Amino acid sequence: MCNLHVSAAPRPGAANERNPSPMAVTEPVQKYFDALLASYDVLVDAVTKANERGTKLTEQFALDVVKGQREAIELGRKFAGDPSDVGQAYAAVLETATAAQGRALNFAQAAYQEALAAGTDARETVEKLVQVNSETTKAAVEAARAFASSNPWAEAMTRGFEAFTPAASARPASARKEKVTA
Questions:
Q1: Is residue 20 part of a domain?
Q2: Do the domain assignments include residue 74?
Q3: What stretch of H or E contains 107?
Q4: Angstrom distance (rounded) from CA 46 to CA 124
Q5: What CATH number is associated with residue 92?
Q6: What is the reported pTM?
């Protein structure tokens, strides 16, 4: 037969004067989650910068394509206006080709500068992540210690694990050397 015992004492983990919430967040746990958020913020910032860099290059490329198309149309107009003037046609082709080369050079320089900036940003991001992850690790260790010190089961588990340590390390060396020979 089963007897039901009712007690007025609060159950462990329940809301009471000392613990206003059954899932009260302790300071070490809060530090841990704050450190995690900081590391995610570092990553989000890095992704945002990379996205802006890519957008900037894409926009420049699109503008260069538009300029190239307009110059090609203008070149066609010049040819159509006076097809017999070879000198004017040659000058127009040379001008259009030079402008296209200038745009290509400017785009290459912009891409190179963005690549350098990306390398610098990557180094800074790694440095920030190392710092933030160090803080996250410290906060996690602190939270684990706080949990272990406030949880009665943690001490019982520790004692249980200690009970299973190898017995050979506890025996004297003379006892380990003895062998039975026949």
A1: no
A2: yes
A3: helix 86-150
A4: 9
A5: 1.10.287
A6: 0.57
